[in-house]
Amino acid sequence: MLERHVTLLTGEKVLIRPLKVPDAGLYPDFLSDVTAEDLRLRFFAAMREVSAEMIDKLIHYDPVTAMAFVAIEEQSGRLLGVVRLHDDASGENGEFAILTRSHLKGHGLGWLMMKHMIAYAKDRGLKTVRGQVLGENATMLQMCGELGFHSTDDPDERGVKLVELPLAEVPAEAVH
Ligand SMILES: CC(C)(COP(=O)(O)OP(=O)(O)OC[C@H]1O[C@@H](n2cnc3c(N)ncnc32)[C@H](O)[C@@H]1OP(=O)(O)O)[C@@H](O)C(=O)NCCC(=O)NCCS
To answer: Which pLDDT belongs to residue 66?
Structure first.
């Protein structure tokens, strides 16, 4: 299932669907509502804004080895969040990254997008989904824990946690 209609804890109706090239036009408004701190938590680097070049790269991903889902507010058409999943070199595991509007925190969007991405990964037959999360990103680490991810220190990057979810441990009914 690539698309899903969901309702946030605060009542907003949202469509989660694959990212399309014309969604590039929604990025400036989306990113204007993402704080520098949230950009750092997502990209692991201090940046005041995401360059046009990087947006272009995020939009034009290779559909053979990657997938990105956007969350669109049904009433306004605004982009509320993006979750991505890129295959690793073996093609057996996916590496995720997620970003939502900073003013929308706690509305349940991140949780719903993670579940959508996990369901997609499971349907595709991947073995695990993995991510890197900064050690101070308590919300994300807690959410990953609740979703069943195991967390370890990244041996290569100080202050970074590796979170990993073996998809065989996820019952189908937990994500559908
Ligand atoms: C981290 C991030 C994705 C979280 O998104 P969010 O929409 O604020 O998260 P949610 O509202 O879905 O979840 C937050 C909380 O609700 C819980 N929750 C939400 N929906 C739930 C549900 N249906 N059932 C159970 N728990 C739920 C989560 O576990 C979490 O718990 P807490 O509020 O007690 O901490 C978002 O803040 C973000 O984009 N941050 C910046 C980028 C980043 O950190 N990315 C991660 C590294 S790639």
So the answer is: 97
pLDDT at 171: 86
Instruction: Tell which one of 6, 111, 142 to mutate to probe ligand 1, the residue whose CB is within 8 A of the most ligand atoms.
Output: 111
What is residue 157's three-state secondary structure? coil
pTM of the model: 0.96
3-state helix, strand, coil in the chain (%, to 5): 35, 30, 35
Report the nearest-CA residue for atom 39 of ligand 1. Answer: 99
Going from the N-terminus, what domains does the chain have, and what CATH number goes with each? Answer: 4-126 (3.40.630.30)
CA separation for the pair 56, 78 (Å, rounded) = 19
Query: Tens of pLDDT along 100-115?
Result: 999 999 999 999 999 9
Q: Ligand 1 pocket: which of 6, 30, 35, 100 to mutate (most atoms <8 Å of CB)?
A: 100
